[in-house]
Amino acid sequence: MGARVRALLLAQLLVRAGLRGQDVRDLDQLFPGKAPGTRASPRRAPEPERKGRLIFSSPRAGFENSSLLTWPCGRHKIQPRVVGGKDSELGRWPWQGSLRLWGAHHCGASLLNRRWVLSAAHCFEKHKDPSKWTAQFGELSSRPTFWKLWTFYHRYRVKDIVVYPQFSGTSLKDIALLKLSSSVTYNKYIQPICVAASSSEFQNKADCWVTGWGHIEEGQVLPPPYRLQEAQVSIINNSRCDFLFRRPGFLSYDPDDMICAGSENGQRDACKGDSGGPLACEKRGLWIQVGIVSWGSGCGRPNRPGVYTNVSAYFDWIQMLMARGTPRPVPSRLLLPLAVLWAGLLQPA
């Protein structure tokens, strides 16, 4: 049998055994002899030039960008109350999740990939047991009717809650990751959001959005039918935000850890119940999560914008946890010996 044919059969066996990338290279080390015309590892597209900004390659070439956490992400099929907000539409914010404590909405969240969800650490100060939590996606109401089977099909149990290690109950480092017990099923109403390594380019951006099921005014809960609210807000630059919060009796503002957003007249803001939800900005057709709803001085007060955790400051931590929590596929016990046998046949005579 020709060497090329044997190489093709070996490749098919490796694919069925779940071997990819590094696994193939490991076999190459065990069996260094290669038939002419075969390759040691799959072809990879060259890395794009990095220029300190988001880089998008053509769809045919695939996506190559180390500044984004996952791909595909940040797309929604539906084109376009939080304080000063309005009712949203199903599918407009497909990464929006409802974290439910004993079945009732408690905090917002965002979907990063099929198994990982991003939220605020302070949501779990009193309730750290994952078995008490579920995550709901693809639903417009925070209190869907019992007969909607769709709702319960897209409600996922939480397996692990990972609060950022240095979070101590203050406003600093208010970020947490949740690993789900099973993989989320994507559809046009459920999609992940992008996370970028830097958020500096969004300073002073006036068309970002915050979403959630929180109070529509300070002290006023969201009324029936409890529909997801959306509000367009502006990112306020660090120097202005530091000035607004540098007053006695206020929590301190850390420009390296936090982002301010809202409107200085207080007409648009996040509020109680929105905690953990996303602050998202659009960049070249992709939606990127810039912040996590964290804290504020009341809701919708003049010169008191909402304060959000700066997601990009934790990019490496998020990336590390997600990579560590995604095990490599286990090869089939039956197919692996066959692959090794065929690898032996590729040795030069």
TrEMBL record:
Domain Peptidase S1 per the UniProt entry, residue ranges: 82-323
Name of a matching Pfam family: Trypsin
Region (Disordered) residue spans: 30-50
Keyword Cell wall biogenesis/degradation: no
Family matches, as PROSITE patterns: TRYPSIN_DOM, TRYPSIN_HIS, TRYPSIN_SER
Keyword Cell inner membrane: no
Matching InterPro entries: Peptidase_S1_PA, Peptidase_S1_PA_chymotrypsin, Peptidase_S1A, Trypsin_dom, TRYPSIN_HIS, TRYPSIN_SER
Keywords: Disulfide bond, Hydrolase, Protease, Serine protease, Signal
Signal peptide: 1-21
Alphabetical list of PANTHER family matching this protein: ACROSIN-RELATED, SUPPRESSOR OF TUMORIGENICITY 14 PROTEIN HOMOLOG-RELATED
Full protein name: Peptidase S1 domain-containing protein
Originating organism: Felis catus (Cat)
Lineage, highest ranks first: Eukaryota, Metazoa, Chordata, Craniata, Vertebrata
Gene: LOC102900366
